[in-house]
Amino acid sequence: MLKLKKISLSAISSFFGFTNSFVWSYTQGPMNTLKPTIVPLTDIIPQKLPLLMGAGPVPIPPEVARANGIVISHLGETMRKVATGIQDMSRYVFQTSTTKIFGISGPSSAAMEMAVTSLLWPGRKALVLNMGTFSGRFGDLARGVGAEVTELTEDGRPFRVEQVKKALEAQKYDVLTLVQGETSCGVKNIELPEIVKLAKSMGLKVIVDGVCTISTMTFEVDNWGIDIAVVGGQKGFSSISGVSLIAFSEETYEFVNNREVRMPHWCLDPRRAYKFWNLGEYHYTAPVPGVLALYEALRLITEEGLEQRLERHMTSSKNLQLCLEVMGFELHTPAEYRLNSVLAIKNKNNVPVKELIPYLIKNHGVEISGAFGLDIFRVGQMGEQCRPQNVRLLLEVLGAGYKHYGVTLNTQEALAEFDRIQVKNSSL
C-alpha cells in the first residue's frame, strides 16, 4: 500500500516558489475580519412605533402591511393577475386610459429618472419649473443625461401661465417638467392644467410629478394632456416606500419606443418594463412584497372611491389648517395656492425644530417633518394621516411640544374646535 508522508507548509511553499508570508496571508486572511456585534432588529426599532404625521412616508393600513409580508414568484399567472390589477386600478386613480403604466423598483425619484431619461439626451432641451427641492430635482436628472437645462425659479410661489409662455417663446424646448405640489414648502401649482396645455400646444412633452398629490387632490392625466406622470407609494397611496408608478401616454410611449439614441439605463428603460407589466415576461426580479402592497393600497383607494377619497383629504386638511390657526400658528403658504396634502407651518418663537422633532418622537410618539432651509415644520394630510384620531393627536402633541420649549399655544381651544367640527360632520 502506498503511504503518504506529511508535507510541511514550508516545503509546499518552497516547491512552488511561494514565500511563507504569501501562503499564510492567503489561508488566514478572511479571519482577520472580526465578527461584528449583532443587534437584533427588535432592539433597534421602538416597541411602539411613532405615528407618522410628516411629509412621508405615512401610516399604512393593515391590508397593505399584510400584503407586504407575502412573497410569491415574480413571474407566472398569479403575478400576471396582480400586475394587470395594478394597471387597471392605476388608470382609475391617474384618470387615464393609457395601457402604458409601469411599476418601478425604486422611490419616486426613480420614476422621475425613468421619465427624464426617456425623453432627454444630449442635444435636447428641457425647461424646468423649479419651486423648491423636488421640482428642482428634475434639473439635476436632466443634466445627468446631458440635456441642456434652463430653470425658471420661484421662491415659494406657483408658476403662472404668462410667465411660462414668455420662456417658451424666448427659446425652443423639447420637454417641460413641473410638480403639481412642491412638498418642500407646501405650494400647489394652481395653473398646472393651463401650463400643460400651453406647453403641448407649442410641441413640448410634459412630465408632471404627482408624488404628493395623486389620490389626495384632483389629478387628470388625459384631460390635462400630461405625457408622463409619476407617483410614489409612500404618500397618498398609504403604501410602502421604494415602489413607485409611472404612466406614459400612448403617444409618448411610442415616441420612446422609436427613439434611436441608446437608453442610459437598463432597469429604467420603459420598453423593458413593458415586457414585464404588459406581457408577463422577465425584466428583473420585481420587489414582490412591495408590488403586492401597492395592489392592496390601490384596491382600498378604488373601493373608497376617488371622489370620496379626495373629499376626505380636503376636508381633513382644511379642518387641520383651521385648528392650527386657532392654536396660534401661521401657515407658511397663502390659502390661494396652499398644498392640502403637505402643510408648511411657520415656526414660533425660534423653537429649535431640529430638536423639537426627536423630542416629539421620544416623548409623545408622533413624528413631523422639518424643512430644507426654511424656519418651518411640515405635517402631512395623505392617506391614513387623514383620520380624525390622528389629526387630533397631532394637535395635542404639537401643543405639548411647544410648551416644553416655553411657548404656550391655544391648544385646548384648538382641540375644542376640532371636536366641534367632528360633531357637526357626524350629524350631517
Summarize the structure in short:
The protein has 428 residues and is α/β, with parallel strands linked by helices.
Count the helices. How many?
17
Number of DSSP-assigned strands: 13
Query: Could you state the CATH homologous superfamily of the largest domain?
Result: Type I PLP-dependent aspartate aminotransferase-like (Major domain)
Largest sheet: 7 strands, mixed
> What fold name stands as the CATH topology of the largest domain?
Aspartate Aminotransferase, domain 2
CATH architectural category of the largest domain? 3-Layer(aba) Sandwich
In the predicted model, the low-confidence regions spanning at least 5 consecutive residues are: 1-27
Radius of gyration: 26 Å
Distance between the termini: 100 Å
CATH class of the largest domain: Alpha Beta
* Overall average residue pLDDT: 93
Which sequence of strands runs across the widest sheet?
A: 2-10-9-8-5-3-4
Q: Based on Cα principal axes, name the global outline.
A: globular
Number of domains as seen in the coordinates: 2
* SSE arrangement, N to C: HHHEHHEHEHEHEEEHEHEEHHHHEHEEHH
**Which band does the percent of strand residues land in?**
5-15%
Give the structural class. Answer: alpha/beta
Helix content: 40-55%
